[in-house]
Amino acid sequence: MTGHANAGRPNQLLRNLHSKIASIPMILTAVVIFLGGTLWTVFYSFTNSKLLPRLTFVGLDQYERLWSAPRWLISIQNLAIYGVFSLIFSLVIGFLLAALMDQKIRFENTFRTIFLYPFALSFIVTGLVWQWILNPEFGIQSVVRSLGWSTFTFDPLYNSDIVIYGILIAALWQGTGLVMCLMLAGLRGIDEDIWKAARVDGIPMWKTYVLIIIPMMRAVFITTLVIIASGIVRVYDLVVAQTSGGPGIASEVPAKYVYDYMFQAQNLGQGFAASTMMLITVAIIIVPWAYLEFGGRKRG
Amino acid sequence: MKLRLLAAALAATVVLPFGAANAAELEVTHWWTSGGEAAAVAELAKAFDATGNKWVDGAIAGSGGTARPIMVSRITGGDPMGATQFNHGRQAEELVQSGLMRDLTDVATREHWKDIIKPSSLLDSCTIDGKIYCAPVNIHSWQWLWLSNAAFKTAGVEVPKNWDEFVAAAPALEKAGIVPLAVGGQPWQSAGAFDVLMVAIAGKDVFNKVFGDKDAEVAAGPDIAKVFKAADDARKMSKGSNVQDWNQATNLVITGKAGGQIMGDWAQGEFQLAGQKAGTDYTCLPGLGVNEIISTGGDAFYFPLLKDEEKSKAQEVLASTLINPTTQVAFNLKKGSLPVRGDVDLAAANDCMKKGLEILAKGNVIQGTDQLLSADSQKQKEDLFSEFFATPTMTPEDAQKRFAEIIASAD
């Protein structure tokens, strides 16, 4: 009855009621599982929970232990190296491939499939494949040696100093195809007239790319960055498949620390503290930037 | 996994209405997947099937470190299996304390486990607050050095009789292109090897002070410094053994590509499966030939609390089957481990097992590190030693300092 009475001024809440009802499950999932789970984790990271969660607060002890654990420090360092290089290389290689594909080449579909194909493989498969390729006794090293260079050494997975780069190679092989596709979609979205105008003005092709096209593809770059960045922070399975964190603890990553301490060491508190640190890292990078990017546009 | 569970559930619904009064299917999870281990676990399954019940094998590959989290999450997540392996000691402590595991005291008193099971520390590790929660199935000792006779022959040196001779023989082995000491990349292997060195070089008292009393001063002291010196030797000798799994490392010894391996007596199952004979093809040195002491850790089966009454009954049957003398002999011969009861006849045991039985009879035993340390401290130790063994630039002094810190904060 009240609905009829208010018919004159439509209630904002009741507009599109069907779609709002339909999205309730997703909203609940997001709030309860993502937000609730996150808060629960952060909360319990201040306790000394072992195998099962329990409410005995120990203040910042878990964090103190975390930041004095050599393995955690190595993990962070590895993540930084892996993150910076994988961001730079997958963007550069992905964009270059996309730009080359955009030259109206023959068999574009075939090439696109070939480059994108590794992305269809899981990290576990990728990791195992590259473990074999980089194995000094079966892979690249033995092939090159059998060609005559008998002192050639290439065993990144067995050398503590460069093991993280061995993982990086596999990650790039797997991920650049997707970046290429995203970039290609972005390039295809650029109006043909812009190219024509640039050509009429006599601007060289590389300059057109750098000064005109890339700035126009800002949105695509941001989407790509977010996708790559989230992939970097949660890197886990690739390391497990390729090196299990070895040699020693030289290729450990934060996500693996979280898993190992939560489940193998039966120390939930320590694992929660580590995962909270991961969350904070992501938040520090993503939040201000997302605010500038997406929040800014709405107002402008 | 899911599919198999589903299949098992479907099969159960079909079978149950017609099934006999006390026949049930029990899913048993364990991490015995290497050749020798699988042969041993088949003996357990055979014995349990003979009681009219059905053993549904739930082997989880990838050794304990991978398997235990899966088992624990299934129990805490409300999808318990019928029975599961753990190393008895502290791995399942909290599961018991939160009431997720079944109390076996009734079965144990009925069958006089207290009188049968030797050494009694095995049952003590199953006992929490006076109640018994697990059925020990074997005694595994870590303190063994396995040597390949063929490798030493190739290198032209005698098979060593103790650790020092082994270290002295290392250069000759290296010259012959043989890795002196095989150490796999899994973290627990290097941590375990260190514990073995500690018992052999520093002795039983120091071991008990460090891991039993968690005495950080002893851990930082001169006795342990000697152990780290030996670990440094071991690290140099293990250079070049680019394998991950323990049985791959054992395989290097079996094929003569490596001189020796510090590994628990479960390695023996692999030698046996490869058709090798103790004494002629390989040599075993308990306590590294220095200090003949063995630890009495091992495997035990824990039984999650189930609602299904028939399955609960089957759990009791399984528990008593595991302790049964015939099962004990059949299982342990294949597994290369020692039986949990002193009254069984192991005439078929080989030389190495006989050595172990002798030491056991003399009472030269210590508790295993799984019984003394929490999983958390064990993990920290694993991190330290896997880093130590893979990083030639890390000095023994630095490593000892960190080791003492771990002991100081251990619980």
List strands and helices in order, with pairings.
The complex is a heterodimer of chains A (300) and B (411).
Chain A: H1 2-5, H2 17-44, H3 61-68, H4 70-101, H5 108-116, H6 123-134, H7 140-146, H8 163-188, H9 192-200, H10 205-216, H11 218-233, H12 237-242, H13 254-264, H14 268-299
Helix pairs in contact in A: 2-14, 3-14, 4-8, 4-11, 5-8, 6-8, 8-11, 11-14, 13-14
Chain B: H1 2-18, E1 25-30, H2 35-49, E2 54-59, H3 63-76, E3 83-87, H4 93-97, H5 105-110, H6 113-116, H7 121-126, E4 127-128, E5 131-132, E6 134-136, E7 144-148, H8 149-155, H9 163-175, E8 179-181, H10 187-202, H11 204-212, H12 216-220, H13 222-237, H14 246-254, E9 258-262, H15 267-273, E10 282-286, E11 294-295, E12 299-302, H16 309-323, H17 325-335, H18 351-362, E13 365-366, H19 369-372, H20 375-390, H21 396-408
Parallel strand pairs in B: 1-2, 1-3, 8-9, 11-13
Antiparallel strand pairs in B: 3-12, 4-5, 6-12, 7-9, 7-10
Helix pairs in contact in B: 2-17, 8-9, 10-11, 10-13, 10-20, 13-21, 20-21
Keywords for this entry:
heterodimer; A: 300 residues; mainly alpha; 2 domains; B: 411 residues; alpha/beta; five-stranded mixed β-sheet; 21 helices; 13 strands; 12% strand; globular
Report on this model:
- The complex is a heterodimer of chains A (300) and B (411).
- Chain A is 71% helix and 0% strand.
- In chain A, helix 4 runs antiparallel to helix 11 and helix 8 runs antiparallel to helix 11.
- Chain A has 300 residues and is mainly alpha-helical.
- In chain B, the strands form 4 sheets. Chain B has a 5-stranded mixed beta sheet, with helices on both faces. Chain B has a 4-stranded mixed beta sheet with strand order 8-9-7-10. A two-stranded antiparallel ribbon of chain B has the order 4-5.
- Chain B folds into 2 domains: 173 residues, D-Maltodextrin-Binding Protein, domain 2 (3-Layer(aba) Sandwich), CATH 3.40.190.10; 195 residues, D-Maltodextrin-Binding Protein, domain 2.
- Chain B has 411 residues and is an alpha/beta fold.
